[in-house]
Amino acid sequence: MKRVTGIGGVFFKAKDPVALRAWYKTHLGVDVQAWGGAVFDWTDANGQPVAGATAWTISADNGKEYAPSTSSFMINYRVADLDALLVALRDEGCHVVEVGEPSEFGKFAWVMDPEGNKVELWEPVPGQ
């Protein structure tokens, strides 16, 4: 079974998210949008668009979206078959924290790694 197929998003906290977003926009050219993040569309080796994108956001450091982790970041990994992967992870003794309801974006679940980092798993809707 194929497990992770790519990175769907990188999310991290900041003491001053507005200033940090501005720094990334000014100095690294990240196209930070009003919602607090950016989307990097995928391309092939020739620069042609392909299905898929990677989200990037900075949030306030007092948010609880990464709980029960106390880390300042969370990585979203794209997966091919979330249901099968969750069965395998549970069988392997991994701590699955939560399974989300399917949404317009696909299916999500969260697992804790051995260092206490919350990991987001995402099975996008077909064609995304």
From TrEMBL:
Gene3D superfamilies per UniProt: 2,3-Dihydroxybiphenyl 1,2-Dioxygenase, domain 1
Residue ranges the record marks as coiled coil: none
Ranges of residues in domain VOC: 6-124
InterPro entries for this protein: Anthracycline_SecMetBiosynth, Glyas_Bleomycin-R_OHBP_Dase, Glyoxalase_6, VOC_core
The name this protein goes by in its record: VOC family protein
Organism lineage: Bacteria, Pseudomonadati, Pseudomonadota, Betaproteobacteria, Burkholderiales
